[in-house]
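This part of the workshop introduces the protein records we will be handling. Each record describes a single protein and holds just a pair of labelled lines. Instead of coordinates, the fold is spelled out as a row of discrete tokens. To make this concrete, we reproduce a full record directly below:
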Amino acid sequence: MTLRRDLRSSMTLEVSDPTAFVLAISSARGVPLAWEALTISVDGDPVAVRELDEEPLTRLQLFETTPGTVRIDYAAEVTGRAPAAAVHPIDEIVYLRPSRYVQSDTLQPFARDTFPGLGGARLVREVSSWVADRLAYVPAATSPTGGAVETLESGEGVCRDYAHLTAALLRALDVPARLVSVYAPGLDPMDFHAVVEALVEGRWVVVDSTRLAPRAAMVRLATGRDATDTAFLTNTLSDIRLLTLQVQAEASEAFSDDPDELVELG
């Protein structure tokens, strides 16, 4: 039987001035879709949307609005699995660099002291287990401006904080690592989810130090250096207020998840 995953997300926003938006809530390029639909309106009037691709794989939807209440609805049915993410020569340069929220340069001495003599898949497993044990999942603890260093110091956070710290430790130890936003069937509480992809044995494998959802069920949305590149919504020209956000993701079969297994997003 072909694996099917049903995805839905919706949100409403209050906009007080003309605003430009960028969305990253659609399944990534290459995800096999039976169908999908995206609708955006302001006070009930439809808004035109244009789409751009951002490497690697991310699909962005751009639109502008006048003041009012903005409603965004996305739904899709994924049939089957996406092909394994390609590995490009530039990946080992881009995803080893420190970035805004992944301060791998600052954490390098700590990482080397904490994980001496490890490499490859064993190192990735040890880093993921260490972050899972070290951090407490506390929704109210996250900060939109805090990165891996702040998360290490506080010892708590949400999925993006787990992912930033995991990626920072891996990059500090010469393992290319990047953030991926996903729909995650089985996630509780349900929301957009952030995980890490690490380049291991010539392939991108998914690392989720929160251990909150089975990795084999996840569907890729946006991929990048950190939350700067993978945010589900960004805007310019005006402040906005998020009024509601709902996310649903369901799979046609149940998945177990062994944290030690190397799993690719599909």
The CA atoms of residues 116 and 123 lie 9 Å apart. Residues 120-134 form the longest helix (15 residues).
